[in-house]
Amino acid sequence: MSDQRELSPIEKIKETSDGLRGSIPQSLRDELTGAIREDDQAVIKFHGMYQQDDRDRREERAEKKLDRLYTFMIRLRLPGGYLTSEQWIASHNIAGENSTGVIKITTRQTIQLHGLVKSRIKPTISAFSKAKLDSIATCGDINRNVLCSSHPMQSPVHAQVFEYADKISEKLMPKTRAYYEIWLDEDKLEDKKEEEDPLYENRYLPRKFKIAIAIPGNNDVDVFANDIGLIAIVENNELKGFNIAIGGGLSTTHGNPETYARLGTVIGFSDNEEKTMQTIYEILTVQRDFGNRSDRKLARLKYTVDKYGADWFRAEVEKRTGMKLEEPKPFEFTERRDYYGWKQGHNGLWYYTVFVENGRVLDDETVALKTALLEVAKTGKVTFRFTANQNVIVSDVAPADKDIINAILERYAITAHTDGASLLRKNAMACVALPTCPLALAEAQRYFPTLITKIEGLLGNHGLADDDIIVRMTGCPNGCARSYVAEIGFVGTAPGRYNLHLGGDNEGLRLNKIYKESLDEQAILQELDILFGSYKKERKMQESFGDFSVRKQLV
Ligand code: SRM
Ligand code: SF4
């Protein structure tokens, strides 16, 4: 069973939290500080929130002997990343009234709002709830937002697969009513037995847990970077079931060799819904019972799988479900991308994928994206789907309405913005990092667009402007923009410095490795200039930059 060395302090907080209530109501009433009590900071994560502070203003406030400028970030639960037009309008208004106003699309197909002061959390959750949206379990040691291949064009079975994301999310929800009591003022349960939780008990999982579903050949969700990856097996346009991969996870810690990024291992195939759902459920219970609860750096499923072995893990899951998995079915991923612009789905409806740089929906000097999307939503003729590459697809547009929607996208220059961005920029992702992320060692989303412009210049100089290279940046080694599965990955080590990783492939099936450590911008550009020069001269036909880096043994 689980590692019984001294439990990490979070374990005690979870167990004594009275079903994730902690002392949140008291923390909210305390008007002397914008913060909440320390233990409650761990508990509110399970309700989808993080306490943060504006790191740009720490020094100035310390000099004035002021408390940090505390605010909260809230993240929605959107299995498969779907919103109706009414829900988009609600989110737009809620963002404007309660947060910085920026709607941030994350790398896990959902949205976050930043900068909520403590007194605005309840009104925010209440307004989301009126729009039938919640933030339950989007953070914390629990199953998070479930991803699914985003574009309906990908397969005739897309709608079926998309429904699985919803079903999995529902099945793995916590049973506690704390969210409804604390944030929505619902009555307390008379009988606490009703919220007994056979899956999470009172200790929840040892660590966060992530699930994604991909439909080959596009690995747009980076399925192998998840604790559980489901790979849809489709034959003759029929969904036959899923290959199940376990133990993916990307985070490492600088200087801690025990930590590592790992891609999921396929342990078998399930040919029916009951088996798939039960297998997923029991993978969580095995991780609950055997995962490391003393060292949070080594608590993700990937370490449990490596400690006990994938074969043992599969056997333990089969013992618990009473059902055998079949041998994995063959599958092939050939790309990992968003399909920008207008594309028609198998259902005859139209989809426009909008390029949103680093997922930040706002009006700025280049494009009025937020206003445009509001206007699109107000037609009531669309839905919205978020991609795992931080973009949004204006979705489910009837052929008769396509011109109306296109006219709005053109009027606000969204089409020009999407068409005009280079392939490099459209493939790129950066995490949030500064100023809100407390773990950031270096900038990411605020800096990456500038670096991309410089890299575009280098590629242009070498006649590689149309190359489809996947470049990603994170402000620390946690890997939130999945920089470890990029062809070129930048991982922040200190202000203005990044490890340069090379060797990931185009399909997300190979991790990259460190090529050079802690480079500043000048050194990054010098290295890339040399690398692009030899890539141009020495690459084989159709060879991607990632494959070239490996063939040339650069890493
Ligand atoms: Fe992440 C922690 C942002 C996807 C691995 N991540 C954080 C926090 C909450 C910082 C914190 O703990 O206080 C960041 C909040 C920044 C902010 O101000 O918003 C943060 N992570 C993000 C997002 C918003 C990045 C983005 O720009 O889109 C992504 C939100 C996804 C979502 O909607 O749920 C995000 N994080 C990821 C991913 C990518 C993925 O899941 O596909 C990873 C790597 C995959 C993985 O989990 O292995 C990732 N985030 C982490 C980790 C390392 C976990 C670990 O195994 O050690 C942390 C730190 C932690 O949990 O202790 C972290
Ligand atoms: Fe913050 Fe690091 Fe995640 Fe970036 S990778 S959002 S810096 S935790």
Question: How do the strands and helices of this protein lay out in sequence?
Answer:
Elements: H1 9-15, H2 24-29, H3 38-43, E1 49-53, H4 58-63, E2 70-75, E3 82-84, H5 85-98, E4 103-105, E5 111-116, H6 121-130, E6 147-148, H7 158-171, H8 178-184, E7 211-214, E8 228-235, E9 238-246, E10 265-270, H9 273-290, H10 301-308, H11 310-321, E11 341-344, E12 350-354, E13 360-361, H12 369-378, E14 383-386, E15 392-397, H13 402-411, H14 414-420, H15 423-427, E16 429-430, H16 448-461, E17 471-474, E18 488-494, E19 497-502, E20 513-519, H17 521-538, H18 545-551
Parallel strand pairs: 6-7, 7-8, 16-17, 17-18
Antiparallel strand pairs: 1-2, 2-5, 3-14, 4-5, 4-13, 8-9, 9-10, 11-12, 12-15, 14-15, 18-19, 19-20
Helix pairs in contact: 5-6, 5-12, 9-11, 12-13, 16-17
The site of siroheme has 33 residues, from strand 1 and strand 2.
Describe the protein.
By secondary structure, the protein is α+β, with helices and mostly antiparallel strands. It has three domains: 142-336, Sulfite Reductase Hemoprotein, domain 1; 341-422, Sulfite Reductase Hemoprotein,Domain 2 (Sulfite Reductase Hemoprotein, domain 2, Alpha-Beta Complex), CATH 3.90.480.10; 425-551, Sulfite Reductase Hemoprotein, domain 1 (2-Layer Sandwich). 32% of the residues lie in helices and 18% in strands. The protein is built from 18 helices and 20 strands. Strands 1-2-5-4-13 form a five-stranded antiparallel sheet. A hairpin with a 2-residue loop joins strand 18 (488-494) and strand 19. The mean pLDDT is 97.
